Amino acid sequence: MLYSNILEKIKRNKTLAEILTPAGISQIKRYLITGFSSAAIELSLLYIFRDVLKLGIIVSNSIALTIVFWFNFLMNRFFSFKSSGNIKKQIIMYGFLFIFNLGASNLIMHFLTVSLQIQYLLAKVFAIGAVVSWNFILYKKVIYK
Question: What pLDDT does 3 receive?
Fold first, then answer.
């Protein structure tokens, strides 16, 4: 009974129904490949800037995110979402989302590392998870549509 109620609600939600098709699932897989690749690069850069170059956590996080910006944009555009839309418009929208994500990531990193004393790489994993949670829908419905 509960299972059928959940399925009925999914079918009525246009966005969820669209995502849970074979094509939608394939797109999610490509998005995850892009996401895990981006996360690996981002974590590696964060480590280099923080532990090798001895920069502050927020500075290191900001630089790592900025470098990964282009990799992530291009992988999502051409691989994950296979978009052929106006690239200038997409870059502008992606840039605004990037600024929001950068602020959110830095706030999460600061809170977790300073207030909760969580190791910075683990805090980064949490920050990535938070950002990823809203990015897929925004990429699919707004940026790469």
Answer: 63
